[in-house]
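My main concern about presentation is that the manuscript never shows what a single data entry looks like. For the editor and my fellow referees, an illustration may be useful. For illustration, here is how one protein appears when written out as sequence plus structure tokens:

***
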Amino acid sequence: MSSATGFDVRAYARDPRDLRPADLELESLRGLAPETLEVLVHLWCVERGLLDRLRDILVTPTHAEPRVTAFLTTWSYEQHWLAETLAAVLAANGRTAREPGDTAGGRARRVWDERARPVLGAVAGNLLGADVTGAQMTTSGLDTAVLAEVYRRLAAAEPRLAATARQIVDLKERHRAFFAEEAAARLSGSANARRLARVAVSRWRWPGTRYCDPGPVAERIGRIFGAPTDRAGLLELDDELAALPGLGGARPVRAALGRLARE
């Protein structure tokens, strides 16, 4: 489960970074600005929703990959406590962590995801074989990298959250290291994996916009990434992704920001 030169999954599993509400001085985080709380609500929705990735992954051949499943066991534990911590910050500010209402299209997509997608995904995944794992690692890494940038901007915008946000960024960067290593290895070894990854990347959307009205998300993201210099780190993620085998020219972050700007 560990690589001699790369990401050590055994060491990761032995040392989870479970940021918990008890680790924060919640009293000092009261009275956060409403716009900051809106961003935190969105982040809570996203972090909690990422746990659904296990449902989608574990019905595919990836469930037979011991290195990946060992990583995801600890990853899901860390994700759970991260979502709980964000909920605690919101509660300290009188806000209840809850998902926004689904749009009509979002409700249809949710029904599809919860009822049909696991079954069809299992069938399709088993037909495609282990190459599907490369695409899953690629988009998981993209989600993680984008969220790390959001937390960085949040730290800059709200000094009281800076220490907590930096801890979360460190957590995300560790996750990102695993996903990047796995994606590179799998894409370099298979033309079919590269093809599946290109399709997955072309369909990628900003985290947390699959079910809800993306308009409010666009407003929040536009606020914290308002200046061109603020967006520079985000756009660099496209260059990093394009360096992966078979993904030259891919610009999913720029495309997602463009869609949000049109909402």
Notes: The chain has one domain: 23-95+127-262.
